[in-house]
Amino acid sequence: MPLSFISTMLTLAIPPNHPGIRYISRHIVSSTVARFDWVGTGLTVRVAAPVNASANGSLAVTLQGGHARFGVFRGSTLSDTFTTAESDGRRVYQLSSSVAGGDEISLLKLTEPQKSKAAPAAVFGLELTGGLTLGPATVPSRTFGVFGDSDSAAYGVDGSSAHELRCLEAAFGDENFAHGWIRGVQQLVGGATSGMAEAHVQAVSGIGVTRSAGGGKEKMPQLLRRSLQA
Questions:
Q1: Do 72 and 21 belong to one domain?
Q2: pLDDT in tens, 21-32
Q3: Is residue 227 within 8 Å of 28, Cβ to Cβ?
Q4: Do residue 87 and residue 128 come from a single domain?
Q5: Count of CB atoms situated within 10 Å of the CB of 209
Q6: Can you give the pTM of this predicted structure?
Q7: Count of domains forming the chain
Q8: Could you give the CA distance from residue 35 to residue 33 in angstroms, rounded to a whole number?
Q9: Are residues 119 and 193 in the same domain?
């Protein structure tokens, strides 16, 4: 049987602590699970094609996402979104049905934790087909931090001035980090030749430095050192 044909059948199971996975911003990772929950957190990988690997394969993640929306990026371009629910439990989600050597795929959490005690996103591993593997983790040319509230989290960004209260009624408050102002700043800071800069975001709707909206007790200084927001 030709090696090229055999490679198309191979599925590589990748543990969450694989050195080829680079986690974005705050996270907790072990050999069995990686957890993150701040808006804008996630992971990125670069696909590599060994000799005799097929031209294309697929990439999937085993994820327990909780109540959240996620975005899949190919390079800096948003290619897909999907939502998860607490009742979904652990499932396999396809990030791309066609990847090749050199492709960079990222998974980002586009929404904040929806409850004060919400379970964080949990990644149990990745799967690559086609005999492909992961290359060395890429390092962003520039990184910056953002500490903010709903404006930074992009709460209501997908809403409309014609329906001002829709953000209070929508499942995720029309929140979508992929469409927020921070993504634009990442492109500007990265520059035309250096690629997109990486943002480490700690943003909570209604949070304040000395006083929070609605009389909330928690304030940003109390959250800064947390790896997980909830």
A1: yes
A2: 999 999 999 999
A3: yes
A4: yes
A5: 10
A6: 0.89
A7: 2
A8: 7
A9: no
Residue 3 confidence (pLDDT): 40
Which residues make beta-bridge pairs with 148?
203
How far apart CA 61 and CA 128 sit, in angstroms, is: 9
In tens, the pLDDT along 146-191 reads 999 999 999 988 887 766 656 555 567 789 999 999 999 999 998 7
Same domain, yes or no: 80 and 149: no
Cα(128)–Cα(18) distance, rounded to whole angstroms?
Answer: 13
The pLDDT tens digits of the residues spanning 58-74 come to: 999 999 999 999 999 99
> Going by C-beta distance under 8 Å and a sequence separation of 6 or more, which residues neighbour residue 174?
155, 156, 157, 158, 159, 166, 167
Q: CA-to-CA distance for 139 and 45, rounded, in angstroms?
A: 11
In order, the DSSP letters of 135-191 are: -PPP--S-EEEEEESHHHHTTTTT-BTTBTTHHHHSTTTT--GGGSHHHHHHHHHHH
Domain residues for the domain of 77 are 3-134
Which of 69, 102, 134 terminates a domain? The answer is 134
Look at the block and give the residue holding tokens 């990125």.
44
Strands 22-24 and 42-48: antiparallel
At residue 81's C-alpha, the angle toward residues 172 and 54, to 5°, is 160
Give the CA distances from residue 166 to residues 7, 115, 155, in Å, rounded to whole numbers and listed in that order. Answer: 49, 19, 11
Q: Please list, residue by residue across 13-42, b when 16 or more beta carbons sit within 10 angstroms of its beta carbon and e when fewer do.
A: ebbbebebbbbbbbbebeeebbbbbbbbbb
Residues 6+ positions from 42 with CB-CB distance below 8 Å: 23, 24, 36, 70, 106, 107, 108, 109
